[in-house]
Amino acid sequence: MEHRSGSPDAGAEAAEAGRSGSAAQGSGIAGSEAGGPGTAGSDPEGPGTAGSDPDARWLALLMHAAFFLLLGASLTRFLMRHPGEDRTPWIIALSITLAVLYLLGPVLGSRPTPRRLTWLAVLVVVWMVLVVLAPSFAWCAVPLFYTGLRILPPRAALALVALLTVFVVAAQLRLADGFDPNLVLAPPAVAAVATAVFVHMQRQAVRQRELAARQRELIDDLLRTRRELAATERREGTLAERQRLSMEIHDTLAQGLSSQQMLLQAADRTWSADPDAARRHVRTATGIAERNLAEARRFVHDLAPADLAEGGGLEAALHALAARESAQAEGALTVHCHVEGTPHAPLPDRVQSALLRIAQGALANVREHAGATAAGLTLTHLDDRVVLDIGDNGRGFTAEPEGVRGARTVRGHGLPAMRARVRQLGGTLTIESAPGEGTVLSAEVPLTTTEDPT
């Protein structure tokens, strides 16, 4: 202990120690936010982890530097004020021991293991001895506060803080000339503020971890929802594309193959009796095969109708379709095409493709089922819509409401495909027919209505 009789400036040193101890503790509050050994700044598992936060790592380094600066300043002050005293070697040895113990803190971790608790006890004892010998070393109290708060359970940590505070007050009062309220009240106030700051930091760190965990959960839920939505959209797109391809194939390749089959069967029946007629059937089947080949190649290219790809638009494609159907029927069926009105703007590609497919499917039904001798295609351009009528003078049938499939339509895919095409464009398909009175099919597509995505 430093006795007042041993030094002429002992009283001044005691008073200065009390003031500087409070000031140092206050500065320790700011520095301790970075964490000391065993504090949040150096704990890889605690709040404010230095390993995961670059700012916390730099603040932890700043805290360590501040501790060693305070320790060095205390030792320097003692050597300047009390050179050559008997206790000087002890002060130097204990200062070095305190520094070494402080450096061992991060190596031992932050969990309250027996080895870690032993280290803390030795660190506190060495500091107490230094404070008894030279009160200037009280400046290092706040890092010890935070070390105890970080390692010990709450009650034990508060008890340690109280013990260190009482020890600091008692040591400084023994060196004072008289009673000084600042020496009695300032250290407990600083200790209370330091403890409150640490507890607040710890709670904030816990809240931040909980918030980060909730944010990760929300992000995971969002990503999972987006993946599910994308998968659903892909499935719906795949189903829609399959439906569209099935209608395309039915209206082109399937109808062409059906016609080829009928022609080849007719050629087989007349091969011996009428070779010329059989050859005509084969040539007609060959022409249909060529058209089917063009359609197939067009499917591979962009799935657009081959007639439209040749240029001329929907009107030219319908005229070509009518001429081809008439030629293939060899006089048994005559197909006429008529266009009314002039479009204000070119029809969208989807509208042209759908109407051409509807015309192909309808004429295929006429050729296979109606027994008609004449059929007509009428394309009418109106201001806000386009209408395609396909009529024939065949045997007709009893038209049924949409969605009802009778015995006659069980095998057919044509009418449902036509209805689906028109519905996708936001239009309507109507059928007027009666037994013995022919059939009129009308497809009406609006030009200003958004297409139905279904």
Features:
single chain; about 450 residues; Heat Shock Protein 90; 2 domains; five-stranded mixed beta sheet; 12 helices; 5 strands; about 10% strand; disordered C terminus
Topology:
Layout: H1 10-32, H2 54-81, H3 88-108, H4 114-133, H5 141-151, H6 154-175, H7 181-270, H8 275-301, H9 306-309, H10 313-329, E1 334-340, H11 349-370, E2 374-381, E3 385-392, H12 414-424, E4 428-433, E5 439-446
Parallel strand pairs: 1-2
Antiparallel strand pairs: 2-3, 3-5, 4-5
Keywords: 4Fe-4S, Cytoplasm, Iron, Iron-sulfur, Kinase, Membrane, Metal-binding, Transferase, Transmembrane, Transmembrane helix, Two-component regulatory system
Cofactor: [4Fe-4S] cluster
EC number: 2.7.13.3
Unreliably modeled segments: 1-52, 405-412, 450-454
Continuous helix count? 12
Mean pLDDT: 75
Beta fraction: 5-15%
* Secondary-structure element pattern, one letter each: HHHHHHHHHHEHEEHEE
GO molecular function: kinase activity
Main location: cytoplasm
InterPro entries: HATPase_C_sf (IPR036890), HATPase_dom (IPR003594), His_kinase_dom (IPR005467), Sensor_HK_TwoCompSys (IPR050482), Sig_transdc_His_kin-like_C (IPR004358), Sig_transdc_His_kin_sub3_dim/P (IPR011712), Sig_transdc_His_kinase_ChrS (IPR017205)
Subcellular location: Cytoplasm
